[in-house]
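Bench notes, afternoon.
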Amino acid sequence: MSSDTVAVNLSPDLIKPIVETKIHAAVLDALKSSPQVIESVIAHVLTQPCNENGRVSKYDSDNKYTVIRVCLLKTIETEVRKVLAEWMEGSKAQIAEAFRRQLAKKSQTDALAKAFLAAMAAAVADHWKFSVEVKPSS
């Protein structure tokens, strides 16, 4: 009796791309035929607890936010910064004038002097070497 077995050796480099392509096609076909899968994945991602950077931390106590909240807050913050920068650029003269008026008030001048003296006293208390340079305005 003879053996009808044939041995074929195929390189893994030949088989791997074929298998990957078949798996990729099967996953895509499953996702296309089931929109509920996509919706549930998106719902899970958007409600996933995360830290303030939008990343899932290994510490549960850091995961106080949701991904959607973090993304919305970052987007809103970016837009608010843009609007404020534009407003401040257009209002430089008014801001400078309001600042001058506030500094011209005696109460503000006194408060500024007290803050300066308190900062100097704190610096002297913290460091044994302290220097102050005062230049007259030209």
